[in-house]
């Protein structure tokens, strides 16, 4: 399930922070940013939107009538610079509040709560399917079979992905965000905006990088907390 969202704000630094965080969350798609309510309304009436990130000052200045929108009321996350404003009347109810500057930990915690809630609303039983230990990827004019246990890491290069396996390198037209959706979370993890690594093939972990064979791969500051949390949750790291 993908959560489609837009940002309503005039704070460019805040917008860039949210967009950067959003790149690391595979189920979040930040589709557009607006500083004008009428422009946002026109966009929302033509596009599917599940979530709004809205600045408190922006919300206080606008009287939002959801009857003017051709959608069901989306979830709203209010961002603000001062906690004392949280309980003031700003003409709109919020799913949650986040303080500026927003930490990645707070951001992903709120997003996970929304994701879990929406999954609960849309969940329906599915027949059990066998999990394959391989996938197919386009390599030039061919579609090539790749085994999960042979992949060392994925490296993003704009619209292309470098897949490094034990025996070879494959370059394919793909994005890191799409890749994160399909890869099994118990096998692979994103540790940098440009890298997804195989947990099975990590030889050494230190504060700033992982070592896989001869490759030294950086751990991005944004991804470090979720990386180590993932290792602990899978009981792969013992303190």
Automatic annotation (TrEMBL):
The modification 4-aspartylphosphate is found at residue 55. Pfam families: LytTR. Residues 4-115 form the Response regulatory domain. The keyword Phosphoprotein applies. Gene3D superfamilies: 3.40.50.2300, LytTr DNA-binding domain (2.40.50.1020). It comes from the Bacteria. Residues 135-207 form the HTH LytTR-type domain. GO terms for molecular function: DNA binding; phosphorelay response regulator activity. InterPro entries: CheY-like_superfamily, LytR-like, LytTR_DNA-bd_dom, Sig_transdc_resp-reg_receiver. Keywords: DNA-binding, Phosphoprotein. The keyword DNA-binding applies. PANTHER family: STAGE 0 SPORULATION PROTEIN A HOMOLOG, TRANSCRIPTIONAL REGULATOR-RELATED. This is DNA-binding response regulator. It comes from Labilibaculum antarcticum.
């Amino acid at each position: 399930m993908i959560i489609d969202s837009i940002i309503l704000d005039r704070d460019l630094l805040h917008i860039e922070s949210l967009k950067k965080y959003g790149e690391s969350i595979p189920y979040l798609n930040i589709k557009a940013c607006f500083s004008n309510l009428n422009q946002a309304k026109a966009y929302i009436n033509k596009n599917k939107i599940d979530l709004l990130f809205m600045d408190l000052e922006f919300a206080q200045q606008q009287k939002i009538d959801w009857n003017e929108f051709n959608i069901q009321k989306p979830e709203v996350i209010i961002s603000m610079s001062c906690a004392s404003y949280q309980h003031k009347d700003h003409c709109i109810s919020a799913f949650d509040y986040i303080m500026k500057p927003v930490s990645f930990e707070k951001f992903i915690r709120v997003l996970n709560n929304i994701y879990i809630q929406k999954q609960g609303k849309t969940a329906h039983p599915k027949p059990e399917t066998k999990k394959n230990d391989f996938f197919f990827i386009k390599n030039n004019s061919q579609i090539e079979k790749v085994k999960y246990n042979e992949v060392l890491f994925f490296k993003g290069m704009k619209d292309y992905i470098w897949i490094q396996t034990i025996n070879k390198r494959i370059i394919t037209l793909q994005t890191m965000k799409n890749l994160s959706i399909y890869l099994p979370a118990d096998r692979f993890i994103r540790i940098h905006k440009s890298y997804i690594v195989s947990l099975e093939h990590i030889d050494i972990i230190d504060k700033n990088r992982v070592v896989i064979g001869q490759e030294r791969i950086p751990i991005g500051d944004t991804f470090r907390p979720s990386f180590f949390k993932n290792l602990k949750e899978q009981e792969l790291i013992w303190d």
